[in-house]
Amino acid sequence: MNGSDITPAHGYDTPRRSDATRGAILTAARERFATDGYERATIRAIARDAAIDPSMVMRYYGNKEGLFAAAVAIDLRLPDVSGSDRRQEAGRVLVEHFLDMWEDNEVLTALLRVGVTNQAGAERMQAILRDQLLPVTRQVCPDPEQVPARAALMASQLLGLALTRYVLRMPPAVGLARAEVVAWLAPTIQRYLSAPSP
Prior knowledge:
Layout: H1 15-40, H2 43-50, H3 54-61, H4 64-71, H5 84-87, H6 90-104, H7 106-115, H8 119-140, H9 147-167, H10 171-175, H11 178-194
Helix pairs in contact: 1-2, 1-4, 1-7, 2-3, 3-4, 6-11, 7-8, 8-9, 9-11
């Protein structure tokens, strides 16, 4: 037996094995939450998908809510739009960025599916948008008191697009070319960010 295959006496995995196990659990959880939704996804099914014992999932994440929070921990990596030249293009920059994110990140699709049907998912999505979208909105918005409302309006457009294009897969939304989506949506996002209050 190779020494690296020996589990330490205290019962915990080696750091390398621990990272691999966590990675397998999170990958399986994201796929299962995306497929089954929060309510129907089970720890047992996720453990089976990850080829580990369910007790390992519980050891690392405590319960399904803790696992879900870890599985959908998302950094939107929103661009800096604080420069004067960037503020005028913020709508276009953000729409293009979100298109990149949605098309390359299945975790966002899973979160959106769960968020529209489950309170835990909705709260997780609200936290992500609050913590990450509000600061970007603050960079452009002319009135600090309007930042929450403008961020919510911006989210309504971006999440509406994601819902119709990536979750419901409505043919007209799926059929839009990227340039068309940007052309339609960017001016609306820009208006929400920087236009005078109505």
